[in-house]
Amino acid sequence: MLPTVCVVVGAMMATEALKLLTGIGEPLIGRVASFDALTGTTREIAYRRDPDAARPGSIEERTAVREPDPARSITPPKLAQLLAGPTTGGIHETPPVLLDVREAPEASFVSLPHSVLIPLGQLPDRLGELEALPGGRDASIVVYCHHGVRSVRALDVLDTAGFTKVRHLSGGIDAWSVQVDPELARY
Fold it and tell me: Does the model's pTM come out above 0.85?
C-alpha cells in the first residue's frame, strides 16, 4: 500500500509543478489538497484567516524590529560622542561599557573597540561578569549586535536581572559603520 501512496502523491506534486511551468490549469498555490489513499479521492480543503484573530497579518509585521522606548536606545552618532570622552561636544556623561551580544565569529570579523563580548545565548549565565564592572548593576551599558535585534532581547535579560542604565545601539554595528566609521568592515 505504501508504494502506491508515494506514487500517487508524487504524481500529484508533479502535476502541480507542470501546471506552474506550462500555465495550463489552476495550480494549488495558496490552497491545500487532501488525498484519501483508501478511496483514491482528492479534495480541496477550504481555509481562510480568522478576521477576529488578534495577531498581525503579514510576515513583515510579525518579524519587524521594534525599537524599545527611545530613552532605552542610543544612535550611533550620540554613542560616538559619549565614547570620545566626558567633556567632548558638551556631553558630560561617563563613557558607557560596550556589550557585544553577537557570536564570537562575528566579533572576530569586526567589533567596536574595548567592547565586552558575551553572546546573547550566554548572557543569563554570565551576568556576574557585568555585575563585577565598576558601578555594578548601575553601570552605564550600551548593548549592540549586528542590526539591533539581539540587543533589544538583551535589554530584556538585563532588565530582569536588575540592571538600571542599559541602552541598545539602534541599528547595531552595521548602522555604526554607515553613520560613524565607514572604514569599518561590514557583513
Answer: no
Residue indicated by cell numbers 507542470 = 18
Mapping DSSP onto H, E and C, the string for 31-82 reads: CEEEEECCCCEEEEECCCCCCCCCCCCCHHHHHCCCCCCHHHEECHHHHHHH
CA of 97: how far to CAs of 16, 19, 140, 187, in Å?
A: 57, 59, 6, 24
Fold of 60-179: Oxidized Rhodanese; domain 1 (3.40.250)
Average pLDDT over residues 126-144: 94
User: Could you tell me which of 140, 135, 143 has the C-alpha nearest to residue 115?
Assistant: 143
d(CA 92, CA 78): 12
Say how far apart CA 116 and CA 136 lie, in whole Å: 15
pLDDT, tens only, 20-68: 778 787 776 667 777 787 888 888 877 666 666 555 556 665 556 566 6
For the chain, which residues make up each domain, given as ranges?
A: 2-45, 60-179
